[in-house]
User: Fold Zinc carboxypeptidase A 1 from Anopheles merus.
Amino acid sequence: MKLLLVCLAIALFGATVAEKARYDNYRVYRIRVQTDRQLELLQAIEQYPDGYTFWNEPTKVGTEVLLVVPPHKRGHFSDIRAQYALRAVLQTANLQEQIDQESRPSLRKETFGWTAYYRTDAIYAWLDSLVASYPSVVSPLNIGNSFEGRPIKGVKVSYKAGNKAVFMEGLIHAREWVSGATVTWVLNELLTSSDPKVRQIAENYDWYFFPVTNPDGYEYTHTTDRQWRKTRSQSSILCRGADPNRNWAYNFMQGGASSVPCSDTFAGASPFSEIETRQLSDFIATLDNLSTYLAFHSFSQLLLVPYGHTTARLDNYDETIAIGTKAINKLRERYGTTYNIGNIAEAIYVASGGSIDWVKGVLRTPLVYAYELRDLGRFGFVLPPEQIIPTAEETLDSIIVILEEGANYGYH
Assistant:
């Protein structure tokens, strides 16, 4: 009988995930955490969400969080707002309308571009076209397959031997679509731009581009649930996936990660339990000329440096911050977009087991940064496609500075 019930539960679960989640009349509120009591409340909701979703984690008093409130919790949310004196400002009245605008078919062209968000197969087909178009410069990379059997594909761009290398990581968190779009736009610029500064970095570094490092999760955001974050491994009988940016084998589970399989920040059963992070790390470890690692996330407009488990300083913290500060100042020049810079644990929240911590802590790569791209929460993860190119343009401006200043410090 128990086996029958288990099989029925699995069958029902499979049937549920086959349908595309909708967020009609889901509201997004910006909440200022003003007291320890409010923080405890929000952390309790995060642990037992019952339909609520946090777009950023409640970690300390004095910060703001974005909370997605489903229609069936409106009454409950109204009660706790009054009971706990929560200062909550309505940010989005209907999340589904925002998602529909982001994915409207009229934006997607026959040829690959940056006026819309594209799925994994389209991104990979475009990478293959670059290999065909630039055979002496672009080489294909396939480091293995995901849990569900999708390839994890990238390309290497190299104009000459003897260069130091730059690694570009996108879409490790599935719902952060602009991260992958930014990585592909920068790749295209390195191949096509005539700007002297772009040509200088394009031709004097080896580049490794992996725009979709969590292909199962990214596909799931297109087919089933736009708000999905994790991988798609079977983490428990009812829950799938681990957070691939809590799964790396450097200070694993040392804060800001969950041992609960259904949590968005579930770190996995063990370091590198996820085949995606295991294969990615194995490949990165083979690069003996790596001088710069850039990971791309959204949202918050931050340039983050290791580490996530501690506020202790990097060995080259002062230089890393000085370079990054010049980079975000340059980023601001084009459109006025303001970024902040800092250690992960200080600037955003404690978050152990991330890729940049492993790249820095284990491989000792000189310059390591994680971008939290646009915006500050108006659209959050559902950034309109019209902002892809401006986001990528200003980001490339800052990457140029990171490499120029890194060279001045002797890192390349």
The mean pLDDT is 93. The chain has two domains: 27-93, 109-409. The two ends are 64 Å apart (CA to CA). The chain has 13 helices and twelve strands.
